[in-house]
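Run log, item B.
One chain of 539 residues. Sequence copied directly from the ordering sheet:
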Amino acid sequence: MSRLRALLGQRIRRDRLQVSLWVVGTALLASLSYVGVAQSYGSEQDRTSLLAAALANPVILLFRGLPSGTDEAAFMVFLIFPWLAILAAFMSTFLAVRHTRGDEEAGRAELVAATPAGRTLPIVATTIHGILANVLLALLTAAAFLAVGQEAGGSLLVGAATGAIGVTFLGVGLLAAQIMRTARGANALSVWVLLATFLAAGIGNAIGTPSDDLTSMQSSWLAWLSPFGWGENTRAFAENTWWPVALCLGAGAVVGGIAIGLAARRDLGESFVAERRGRAAAPSSLAGPTALVWRLTRGSVLGWVLGGLLTGLLSTSLASIVADVGAANPSVEEILDKIAGGGSIQQATVTTFFTMLGVIAACCAVQTVARARQEEARGTAEAVLATPVDRVRWLGDYVGIALVGIALVCAAGIAGAAGGIAGQDGDWSLMTDVWVVGAGQIAAASVFLVLTALVFVMAPRLTIALGWSLVLVGTMLGLFGPLFGFPDWLTHLSPVAVTPQVDGDAVDLRGLWWLVGVAVVGAAASLALMRRRELAADA
């Protein structure tokens, strides 16, 4: 018991900052949803018309929860629950991989396994640590709903459902760490499972059966294949059904138990998916350090490019649907107008989706710079820097590839938007807005890139945590700020919220020049400071 207590304490100390950010951020998002609903959907008529529009155009349900009536609290859950659950899922999968496969790659797991703790106790400690983190997240989420005056039963249920989904994905992360050879591979597998189940729940809700009054929806069988679907079918503040919470916890227990069993059967450092053998000789395309960086990061870049393509496709495909919703509900049009800064509702829809495109491009950039930190922490960067490649060139290659990734993501979004217009024989004049806001998001994402690069140079151990936190804050302000009624000055602190837009026949540059200025100065400063920084190879 003392050995387990020591391992658990070590994990809690190591994760105290990261877990705190995830937990507090999730609870804050829950509490802010009340502000958004109260300000934008304060009357039952507003809520009824939006639900009717959503059920009449089910594709909207892909990105929202399960409608369960027009009560204010139930409407809050409809708008925000999937995002609370996805934050809990990301926190849990990253935590699981970091303390299992990540420790094996860093060599820490081998040292612990040589002590009386053995090989099984560390993964048990990680499991308990993940469960405690999700219990804390569930309690604070419930407290956020209670703090804004919602009833206790529904508040406790929405918190429990959020934490239970986190426990399910804790098991997914633990299992992925046993299957895959690297932490990067385990994280990628976990995220793909997360996204697939998230979409399954959304599609399952979209093809479900609406009620006669168009205020609620019965999920189809597809939603019941997803933990997100289980959590949404608790219907907090409406039916208050608790047994799907047990389903999430049971799934997490089964998957986590399998992971613990597999950990006891495999050799330390090995995996159940065999590592692919490398070529006997490197191809000519790997002749330089820039090509090596592209080879290391191309998989993640291409994944974000696909996300950009889908976002662009939806931006114009849904423009006419959202226009109908806005015509029926002025509150929707008002929110879109705040995000877009004017123009028609179709233009506002494109701007809203391309704000999300900027977030996706920023994620691509942050992940690329984070890869540089991973290479440094594992000691593989040292082998590259032992050649004539200096530190400035090495970091410059990662920054350059990240910038290429940003451009590819935004280009894919523009191509997707054109495909959406062509598929519906829509209004090609929207392409002017697509080009302007798409190009502007390149500048916005570049700001996140250089800020993460500066963190990497000045505080390398905070690169991953702080880089992703910056994107999370930018997303909260840029995407959710108008919904939550934030003042303009606060919303405009997010780079993705101040990009150029079409204003009539002219282009309003808005914050373009300060975005470009920050990107240029930040890139130059990070490269200049890198010249004087020593390697920080310890994780």
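Observations after the first pass:
- Residues 208 and 402 are 40 Å apart (CA to CA).
- Strands lie at 209-210, 217-218, 501-503, 506-508.
Flagged for discussion on Thursday.
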